[in-house]
Specification:
It is a single chain. With 203 residues, the chain is mostly helical. The protein has a single domain, classed as Rhomboid-like fold (Up-down Bundle), CATH 1.20.1540. The protein has ten helices and two strands; from the N terminus they run αααααααββααα. The protein has a two-stranded antiparallel ribbon. Helix 5 packs parallel to helix 7. The longest helix is centred in the first third of the chain and has 26 residues. It starts with a helix and ends with a helix.
Length: 203
């Protein structure tokens, strides 16, 4: 049976490539809070996760999603059976919605604001995987040494919040935080003991 994560990755790559060569298509797919609010273009809440700024942006998101998403998919298949598919879909697309909330309320009156990419949805998957597997070792660029997930997760959130406050990066750090928090909440809802285990390791 084909991996559900691949079912997400493959069309995202294909649609993103379409956006690379078609500026009109990309423009119509962007998340623009102003147009969501005043033009009722609600589809933008989801369409933006299928397009990316460039090949590096796309690669980083899809590689992260594939490796950590596949890990989570395998473990949830073992733990929940067929229900794991529902959980993964809810996690990814719920994370996509959660990632738009903060940017929406911050920019609903700003017609110039635009964002794109699956980073928020991917953040939800990454943080769910880290909470589910707090002892796995991951890398945080540019630190060249592996870091345990239970250490990396809070460090990443601090970094994203600091970057958000500093501003000027052109990166939607608020979307990353929103997706990450959704991923944490989702895992706590389906297995609260994972949160207890994570805190036990952290403290």
């Amino acid at each position: 049976m084909i991996s559900l994560i691949l079912v997400i990755v493959i069309p995202t790559v294909l649609i993103s490539y379409q956006g690379f060569s078609n500026s009109d298509f990309k423009e119509k797919s962007l998340f623009v809070p102003y147009q969501v609010k005043y033009q009722k273009e609600y589809y933008r809440i989801f369409s933006h996760i299928f397009i990316h700024a460039d090949f590096i942006h796309l690669s980083f998101n899809m590689i992260s999603l594939y490796f950590l998403g596949s890990l989570l998919e395998n473990e949830w298949n073992y733990a929940f059976g067929i229900q794991a598919n529902f959980y993964l879909i809810a996690l990814y697309f719920g994370g996509a919605i959660a990632a738009t909330l903060w940017p929406y309320f911050r920019n609903a009156e700003n017609p110039a604001y635009r964002s794109l990419g699956a980073s928020g949805a991917v953040s939800a998957v990454i943080f769910a995987a880290m909470l589910w597997n707090p002892k796995i070792e991951l890398y945080l660029f540019p630190i060249p040494i592996p870091i345990k997930a239970y250490v990396l997760a809070p460090l990443y959130l601090v970094f994203e919040y600091y970057s958000l406050k500093r501003g000027g990066s052109g990166i939607a750090h608020d979307a990353h935080i929103g997706g990450a928090l959704f991923g944490i909440l989702f895992v706590l809802l389906i297995d609260f003991t994972k949160g207890i285990e994570f805190l036990g390791l952290l403290f």
